[in-house]
Write a structure and sequence with these properties.
By secondary structure, the protein is mainly α. It has a domain at 13-63. It is built from two helices and no strands. It has helices at residues 15-36, 41-62.
């Protein structure tokens, strides 16, 4: 994972702004990937919002428990939704 600037400590006042900037690149790439695969952009945004809210609620419920790495469960019977082109990683702050 590359970043274009040094990571700030979480206590730094600029931490949230830098994090939002870094996330923006990834979200724009994700939207581009899904719309290129034929998904409607507005529906993709609504689905992404729902997923992020679900993750936030789950985190809030579990935040008192020790953190464990989360892995995405794959379904070997289904192909991935889209195939990455490799170009979306170029020039972006976070991956």
């Amino acid at each position: 994972m590359e970043t274009s600037s040094k990571r700030l400590p979480i206590s730094d006042p600029g931490y949230s702004v830098e994090l939002r900037k870094a996330l923006n690149y990834s979200i724009v790439d994700l939207l581009d990937e899904f719309t290129a695969a034929g998904w409607d952009e507005w529906e993709t945004l609504k689905a992404l919002t729902k997923i992020v809210c679900d993750h936030a609620l789950a985190y809030q419920a579990d935040r008192d428990q020790p953190a464990t790495p989360r892995t995405r469960k794959s379904n070997p019977g289904q192909p991935p939704l889209t195939q990455g082109t490799g170009t979306r990683r170029q020039g972006h702050a976070v991956r």
